[in-house]
Amino acid sequence: MFGFVLVLVLVGMAVGVLIGNGILGTLIALAIASLAAFGSYWKSDAIALRMSRAVPADPVTYKRLHNLVEGLCIAGGLPKPRVYVVHDPAPNAFATGRNPKNAAIAVTTGLLEKMNRVELEGVVAHELSHIKNYDILVMTLAVTLVGTVAIITDITIRMMWWNGGRVARAGDRNNRSNPLALIGIALLILAPLLARAMQAAVSRRRETLADVSAVQLTRYPPGLISALEKLQADSTVTHSASMATAHMWIEQPMSGVNDTGRLGFFHKLFNTHPPLAERIALLREI
Q1: 172 or 187, higher pLDDT
Q2: Residue-wise burial string across 39-78, b where 16 or more C-beta atoms lie within 10 A, e elsewhere
Q3: Alpha-carbon distance 181 to 20, whole Å?
């Protein structure tokens, strides 16, 4: 979180240098970040569920799912979260909420169809571990700060283009010869990429932690291992996911994890999940 705030402050300073007031730019950036973080803190669960088109899971129709959630919550000392279902053929699941008392878990119909009871228990334990470890709060704040950086840089670059793109002003000539202005422009271009890479790195670590915590909760590593192997073998696209919610799912729903070639290392910097093969290998060592 400190790293994200530092990037945001640097962006604000760059904006200030380019518009002639570094302190003002920094204060505006911090104000925008604070408002965005506060809003996402209170409404993250509702926003994520609506974006994913999740609906409440009927206790009768999805009795097995409710029983698994209740049993694992008792074992982990957690209050039962709200349970939702996403009508999507791809096997996947996610958890959301700012704390264990205000949390929700959602699974796709594809996951319910393709997983047996032990495998489904491993997936549910993984999502409950996210709730118990407050991963959802951490990642919500990270996504909000990344979005704030992207918005500020985009607005600033557009303002610079329209104000000094074709008809340069007298003050612009001085700014262009100022090394700080050049550094500010470079920072505005690179900051969104840096923030996204930091967000992805945080997400990958929290996914690994949730895998290990899930095994501690179920005390049966083969269950989650088998579930991850099925996810690895399945190539169905999760249509209910988006770039904004990709970090929340148990398996990265967007492309990028298996990118190889000359730019493979660069692509991996922005993956929100470790490769499934690495996660499976880690669990086999436990």
Answers
A1: 187
A2: ebeeebbebbbeebebeebeeeebeebbebbeebbeebeb
A3: 10
Quote the domain boundaries for residue 188: 2-284
Mean predicted confidence (pLDDT) in 205-234:
93
- The residue type of 126 is H
Q: Count Cα neighbours of 111 within 13 Å in the Cβ-side half-sphere.
A: 30
Residue with the bigger pLDDT between 258 and 137: it is 137
- The reply to whether 127 belongs to the active site is yes
Q: Which of 119, 121, 127, 207 is catalytic?
A: 127
How far is the C-alpha of 174 from the C-alpha of 246, rounded, in Å?
43
pLDDT at residue 195, as a whole number:
74
Residues 6+ apart with CB under 8 A from 3: 198
**Residue 38 pLDDT > 90, yes or no?**
no
- 261: alpha, beta or left? (left if phi > 0; alpha if psi -120 to 50): left
Characterize 132-147 residue by residue with b for buried, 16 or more Cβ atoms within 10 angstroms of its Cβ, and e for exposed: beebbbbbbbbbbbbb
Does this model's pTM top 0.85? Answer: no
φ and ψ at 114, to 5 degrees? -100, -10
What contacts 60, CB < 8 A, 6 or more positions away?
A: none
Number of domains in the chain: 1
DSSP 217-267: HHS-HHHHHHHHHHHHH-----TT--TTTGGGBSS--SS-TT--STTHHHH
Contact (CB, 8 A) for 224 and 132: no
